[in-house]
């Protein structure tokens, strides 16, 4: 997973034509407050290439019908297109089987599904769930709800001053009572890449399954769930150039088979009577109700777009830009980087003198630069670093070194206003 | 830059760097905590009421320049005012920062008129009004933390 440290080879530079890539994203062509848009809030949501927007339009204009139950032409085609994306997602994550791909609303719903279905079936009073100090609220709160309900305990593995998981402490917390490890692949607030394969080995040596929050990893890293060995992997479509409201939960077939349904309704049943309902097979058991068909088709187009550029090329290009931006921003007097892990992806979080991040965000916005300011739904991370908030610039495949320069100039302007 | 200077006027920057009445008030008989979950701003407002009048007022906490300056200037202007007068000021201030102030409204607000630039920045209205909402809660005697959300 350590594409983070690799330099960009001349070959991959040739394969990655940034001007062409930027032209694929209609929203990037606009001006904001009279300035060219510099969109650096990609960890919140990414922009969408024309291929995704057009796939959704094409579906509504030519294919729209409900899936899995119609005998008519449109329903058959909508079903085919929808199920084809399951295959695309399977290949994207290198899952062993397509039935291991469950379409959900996003990473949050994927985690809640596992907490409520797997968790309720396996976690009893006195058991423990192990997470880390760098989790997004969506990988904390579902486990708190489960622990409260079951009388179980949430244990939290600490991080060091660079924002890296302390593996020895993690190992110490992994005990006979641990029933599940839930960990982020890449931290949304710090950018840290966690050594997932190693963590999975440690957990599996104690027969503890591992759920990985992949929301911030999938846009930047090649993810191979079989190589990682994880039991569950969740990601959101909208952070990887797809539409909002759709995501994927990968689960090992044997685990998913044994899990009770998450939600009841249409499509997730084989037969229903008032005496006994028989649930549908995988993956439909976990897809109750009419799904976000257009969203799935948009997600398919997004993953194909990423495949077309090559995730390794994307990651190498982004790392080059992130390293450049990190150097430019950290050279500004008064800047303190939050999150300085050796292995990072996509995120540049910082604080500036005594200037509140919210003020930084407003002043950068006047320059057409969109960043995120606040706690990034990671309040425990903020507490760990003794701050209320950070300013976060987060990068995507269409960002450039010129935009990193604009960010640095914007921060200089913040300093002038507050001088 | 002109818009920015409308927002970050010198008076506001000065108050944010050196907030007035920034302390805990031992004699306080009213107190409330205000929180903006959006950005993490958090202030406690302490009030010492004598009958219906605000004898003394202070605040503590952390927040952006706008929220801190607003809290600082609020404590200066409401000291010595009655509860009703303070509430009326809040109402006028709220109209000012949301762009609904009457034509002659700024005169009545005195120094607080420097916050008129906030109306150009809708997402910052909550910053400017956090301390006022908290004062309102303190005067109403509410115990739990109030939130802008």
Q: What does this molecule look like?
A:
The complex is a heterodimer of chains A (419) and B (149). Chain A contains 15 helices and 17 strands. In chain A, α8 links the parallel β7 (178-184) and β8 (210-213). Chain A is globular. In chain A, the strands form 5 sheets. Chain A has a 7-stranded mixed beta sheet with strand order 4-10-9-8-7-5-6, sandwiched between helices. A 4-stranded antiparallel beta sheet of chain A has the order 13-14-17-16, with helices on one face. Chain A has 419 residues and is an alpha/beta fold. With 149 residues, chain B is an alpha+beta fold. Chain B has a single domain (2-147), classed as Sufe protein. Chain: A. Helix content of chain B is 43%, strand content 19%. Chain B contains 6 helices and 4 strands. Chain B has helices at 2-7, 10-17, 65-78, 83-97, 105-109, 125-140, and strands spanning 30-36, 41-50, 53-62, 146-147. Chain B starts with a helix and ends with a strand. Chain A binds chain B through residues 354-359, 362-363, 366, 373-375, 379, 382, 388-389, 417-418, and chain B through 1, 3-4, 7-8, 13, 17, 38-42, 62-66, 68, 121, 123-124, 127.
């Amino acid at each position: 997973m350590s594409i983070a440290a690799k330099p960009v080879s001349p070959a991959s530079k040739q394969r990655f034509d940034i001007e062409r890539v930027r032209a694929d994203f209609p929203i990037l062509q606009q001006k904001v407050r009279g300035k060219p848009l510099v969109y650096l809030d990609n960890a919140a949501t990414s922009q969408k290439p024309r291929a995704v927007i057009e796939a959704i339009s094409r579906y509504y204009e030519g294919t729209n019908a409900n899936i899995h139950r119609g005998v008519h032409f449109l329903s058959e085609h909508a079903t085919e297109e929808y199920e084809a994306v399951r295959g695309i997602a399977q290949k994207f994550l290198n899952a062993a089987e397509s039935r291991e791909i469950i379409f959900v609303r996003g990473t949050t719903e994927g985690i809640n599904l596992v907490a409520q279905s797997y968790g309720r079936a396996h976690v009893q009073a006195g058991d423990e769930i192990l997470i880390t100090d760098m989790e997004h609220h969506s990988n904390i709160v579902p486990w708190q709800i489960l622990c409260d309900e079951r009388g179980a305990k949430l244990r939290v593995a600490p991080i060091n001053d660079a924002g890296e998981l302390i593996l020895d402490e993690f190992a110490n917390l992994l005990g006979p009572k641990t029933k599940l490890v839930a960990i982020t692949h890449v931290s949304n607030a710090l950018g840290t890449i966690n050594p997932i394969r190693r963590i999975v080995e440690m957990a599996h040596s104690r027969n503890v399954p591992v759920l990985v929050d992949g929301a911030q990893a999938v846009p930047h890293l090649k993810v191979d769930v079989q190589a990682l060995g994880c039991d569950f992997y969740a990601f959101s479509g909208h952070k990887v150039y797809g539409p909002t409201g759709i995501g994927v939960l990968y689960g090992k077939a044997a685990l998913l088979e044994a899990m009770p349904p998450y939600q009841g309704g249409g499509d997730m049943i084989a037969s229903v009577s008032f005496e006994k309902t028989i649930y549908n097979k995988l993956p439909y058991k976990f897809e109750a109700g009419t799904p976000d068909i257009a969203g799935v088709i948009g997600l398919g187009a997004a993953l194909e777009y990423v495949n077309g550029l090559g995730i390794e090329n994307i990651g190498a290009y982004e790392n080059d830009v992130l390293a450049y931006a990190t150097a430019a921003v950290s050279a500004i007097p008064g800047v303190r980087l939050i999150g300085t892990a050796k292995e990072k992806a996509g995120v540049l979080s910082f604080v500036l003198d005594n200037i509140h991040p919210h003020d930084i965000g407003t002043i950068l916005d006047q320059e057409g630069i969109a960043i995120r300011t606040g706690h990034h739904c990671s309040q425990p991370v903020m507490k760990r670093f003794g701050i209320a908030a950070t300013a976060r610039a987060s990068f995507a495949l269409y960002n450039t070194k010129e935009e990193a320069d604009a960010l640095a100039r914007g921060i200089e302007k913040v300093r002038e206003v507050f001088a | 830059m002109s818009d920015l200077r409308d927002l970050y006027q010198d008076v506001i920057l000065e108050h944010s760097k050196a907030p007035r009445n920034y302390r805990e008030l031992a004699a306080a008989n009213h107190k409330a905590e205000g929180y903006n979950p959006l950005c993490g701003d958090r202030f406690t407002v302490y009030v010492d009421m004598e009958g219906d009048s605000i004898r003394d007022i202070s605040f503590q906490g952390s927040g952006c320049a706008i929220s801190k300056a607003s809290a600082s200037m609020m404590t200066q202007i409401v000291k010595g005012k009655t509860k009703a007068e303070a509430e009326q000021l809040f109402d006028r201030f709220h109209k000012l920062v949301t762009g609904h102030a009457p034509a002659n409204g700024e005169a009545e607000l005195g120094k607080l008129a420097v916050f008129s630039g906030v109306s150009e920045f809708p997402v910052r209205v909550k910053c400017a009004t956090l301390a006022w909402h908290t004062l309102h809660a303190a005067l109403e005697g509410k115990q739990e933390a109030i939130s802008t959300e």
